[in-house]
Amino acid sequence: MAQALRFPLIRRSSPPGSSGARRRLSPVWLAALPVALILGPMLPGLYWALVPALDLAVWQSLWADTQWPQALRATLLSAGLGTALGVGLAAGLATALYPGPRWLALQRRLPLLLSVPHAAFAVGLFFLLSPSGWLVRAVAPLLGWLEPPPWTTVQDPFALSLALALGLKESWFLLWVLVAVLGEQTVQRHMVVARSLGYNRAQTWRHVLWPQLLPRLGWPLAAVLAYGLSVVDMAVILGPSTPPTLAVLVWQWLTDPDAATQAKGAAASLVLLGLFLLIAGGARWAWRQIARRAAYPAGERKPAATASRLGLHQPLYLVGYAVVAVLVLWSLADTWFFPALWPDALSLRTWMQADWAPFWTTLWLAAAATLLCLPATLVWLEWGPQRFNAVLYVPLIIPALPLVAAQYAALLRLQGDGTAAGLVWSHLLWVLPYMVLTLVGPYRAFDRRLMTTARALGQSPLGACLRVKWPMLIKPILAALAVGFAVSVAQYLPTLFAGGGRFVTVTTEAVGLSAGGNRRVLAVQALLQIALPLLGFGLAALMAQWAGRCRKGLR
């Protein structure tokens, strides 16, 4: 009898191949399934897209092309100078302003600056810097100019205006990354300890903070470099045209109907990938040498320098505000001739005659891509193997053209090019990594004891997430949705290739009009491109406020 009573209490472990083991592994496979559906077709797509480049004759044709040397030079200058300028601006502002009230003010305004898409920012900067732009109009009455000066301030052969645009735009992204890293308590404690030992602000950053922060900024810096090498929309607007940058040249070759020209484009896209690997590897080696030589600082204290009274962050605000302001003026301008600083008359005629079809196409496309990525992101962060997060970040840290070509090749074989489903799938490859990157920090910081308590009260793993974890993470989840929406709105190459010309978004329309269309219509489309991310971020903020109205801890 005693044995009979004790028998139900005995728990036998299941053998490795039993159904219990399969049940324990099923959440991992469930988390990996959406990622496999997004990334899986890329592997054969890369083979189909790049195998023509394996022919020696293709490489000989590439080296013999007369546009090749100048396009390579423009790409290296724009990507290198743009990355260096972005890093320098972000590092200088962080060193000068953190910690302090001006750093907090910059932190509050960053979301507004980040919501301006790359193409819209390039259009606004073109209106500012062109020989007939707003800056020249401001000084024209003082210098007596009645016609635009014969200067090449945009679309210059060395792509300097493109480098300036990339540096300004990417500095906002790097500052956003620094805000997240500097918000950690460990960094703040190291800052306090170093200052208490007598090191001034510059010494603290040079000897204590930057050696810790720069290795953690490796992935964002790689993403900035990769974007600069493969950017097409900003290069079409601000870069040289005869010949263009290498990325634009590759795009033109890949979309050519001739098979030999497409093969040359595939080879040139491999060159872009090789350039990225070479520059990234060289930067990593240089950092290791610098870190090894500066591993043991002398410990000499220097008196603190006088704090600058200049608002070093103000120029970044002014550029962002000026870009939006000049776009608004051009969209409302009735007649505006050089050298007038303001339009002769304002009118809503351009807005009333505007084509809103690209706006609605962009809206449903971005909403579909974001809503599909949200469950995939949550399931991956909850049950997926986190050691493979780097695989998800691959689209962010390598040039986009080889990946876009692989997507297009896969869609051609699956007969999905030019379809709505294929277009949405092409956006998922970039939306998913950004959403994971936005949510991974709050997910790791979540108190696991809350989930343990929910499970002890009888909740299943999914029920505990639905009733406890995800409601408590509603603010970062909404932020991830807003970020994913903005990323989808800004996609140019995936829309162009996967859409097959059948779907026009505000991004493709703005880039197309920049080649010589009506400036007023171009300004309207650029403002619509800005309005969509602002709508996403504003809606996320309102929903977060509504969700926390009766919950003090969620406000």
Question: What proportion of the residues form beta strands (DSSP E)?
Answer: under 5%
* Helical residue percent band: over 70%
Strand order of the largest sheet: 1-2
Can you tell me the residue ranges where pLDDT is under 50 for at least 5 consecutive residues?
1-25
Total count of helical runs of at least 4 residues = 28
Radius of gyration: 26 Å
Order of helices and strands: HHHHHHHHHHHHHHHHEEHHHHHHHHHHHH
Q: Note the main sheet.
A: 2 strands, antiparallel
Q: Kindly state the mean pLDDT as a whole number? A: 84
What report would you give on this structure?
This protein is an all-alpha fold and 555 residues long. 73% of the residues lie in helices and 1% in strands. The chain has helices spanning 2-6, 19-39, 42-50, 56-64, 68-97, 101-114, 118-129, 134-143, 160-182, 185-196, 201-216, 218-230, 233-238, 246-254, 259-293, 314-332, 349-352, 357-383, 389-392, 394-397, 400-414, 420-445, 448-456, 461-472, 474-490, 493-499, 506-513, 519-547; strands at 333-335, 345-346. It has a two-stranded antiparallel sheet. The longest helix has 35 residues, at 259-293.
Question: What key attributes describe this structure?
Answer:
single chain, 555 residues, mainly alpha, two-stranded antiparallel ribbon, 28 helices, 2 strands, 73% helix, globular, disordered N terminus
Fold blueprint:
Layout: H1 2-6, H2 19-39, H3 42-50, H4 56-64, H5 68-97, H6 101-114, H7 118-129, H8 134-143, H9 160-182, H10 185-196, H11 201-216, H12 218-230, H13 233-238, H14 246-254, H15 259-293, H16 314-332, E1 333-335, E2 345-346, H17 349-352, H18 357-383, H19 389-392, H20 394-397, H21 400-414, H22 420-445, H23 448-456, H24 461-472, H25 474-490, H26 493-499, H27 506-513, H28 519-547
Antiparallel strand pairs: 1-2
Helix pairs in contact: 2-18, 3-21, 4-15, 5-9, 5-12, 6-9, 7-9, 7-16, 7-28, 9-12, 10-11, 12-15, 14-15, 16-28, 18-22, 18-25, 18-28, 21-26, 22-25, 22-26, 23-24, 25-28, 27-28
